Amino acid sequence: MAIGIWVLGDQLWVEQAALQRCRDRAASTPVLLIESLQAAQMRPYHQQKLVLVWSAMRHFAELLQQTGWQVNYVEAETFEQPLRDWIRAKGISELQVMQPNDRPFLTLIQSLDLPCQVTFVPNNHFLWSDDEFRQWASPRKRLLMEDFYREGRRRFQVLMTGDQPTGGRWNFDPENRKPPGKGDESAFQPPAPLWFEPNTLTQQVIQKVRSLHCATYGQVEPFGWAVTRQQALAVLAEFVEQRLETFGPYQDAMVTGETTMWHALLSPYLNLGLLQPLEVIAAVEQAYRDRDLPLNSVEGFIRQILGWREYMRGLYTYLDADYSERNWFNHNQPLPAFYWDASQTDMNCLHQCLKQTEQKGYAHHIQRLMILSNFALIAGISPQAIEQWFHTAFIDAYDWVMQTNVIGMGQFADGGILASKPYAASANYVNKMSDYCRHCVYDPRLKVGDRACPFNFFYWDFLIRHQEKLRSQGRMTLILSHLKRMSSEEVVAIQRDAAAWHFKNS
Fold it and tell me: How far apart are CA 95 and CA 92, in angstroms?
């Protein structure tokens, strides 16, 4: 029986499960990577996302060849034809593929008419397997991230002192919500991120993306993302050395002109397979031991990988496939055009976040959650529409990432399976955690009127519209009590301004 391996574009790890199975016979095992225009046309992807994936794939193919594998790299319109041709040419009777991270891609592979047996090898891209997460989740009434995170800490012995959390606490979030210093921006200067000059191979991919005849989003240059494991490891080292110490306190802060702050910029590389979650966690924990770094920064970062990343992936595999269609609030407003073109909004916070997304395919987690997603939630935008945009726009986006993060956490469209309350906030939050409001035409203190920030009238309109549903959410009781103090005239003015905004921006 001749075995062949198909390596997918987000499985770029020499120890991924399918390659690992055949490592002892690498020289005689055909390996295929396909750069498919079909995949590029599924959405109007960010141009830098296409460059990142295709360049990383080409570099990975070179690495496999250098380490003794029999590699074919194909540029094609579709997946099916090059697969069929390669299977026949190599005499392959069994095609092995590591289980795809994303459900739609699994379905696509299963639909292909291939002249051989297809075997899906269990995915080892995450710390928790699908079965392990199912065993953790199935007996529980509430799937709380905090419970899962603590279990992960114990299981992998991360930041543990004996059977207790290092420092005596599991969670240092209260220390990690520091706003940027008002009037002291000169002292607020995060280090410049580590970018890379595109080599010849990446330049070729850039030119290919420029010449595509399908819809895309964003700017292709300047491109500086890591495209090899060696470069990704350099980004990890730079984060640990230069950014980790201050990561925690300011991880939720937003400052004009500071795109990356102290964030790690590792998610694209973790999601491609260039880095592995446990090695990233180990590097951070070792730095804490060696340099006595602040525990709130170290724990806050580890929580994002060992907790949030694994939790989101676990929920994605555990919940039913129709999760993506959830719409608990029945929101159906179309996505505003400015999400595709930042110049079309005069709201400075949205403009800043969208502009940098156009430029790099990146915004940090609070920009995504409390600006881009929060606005969509309170304005009543279709959760499916905003999820599709997130999937299209961000360099680290995949189906397994965005379904739970956007549908569940960002839009509360699952009715509370994932989050204990909606992440809905007024301009007060934006003003507290950023300097955006100081450079905006709108006043964050006003609820209604021409100069009122849309975040304000939409926030209160959201609470008014959904107060009956929200009463079932225990953490919303205090917030909803403010509605009782509103006059009928104020309620009418809020609803009028919200409706007028939608009419103007439809």
Answer: 7
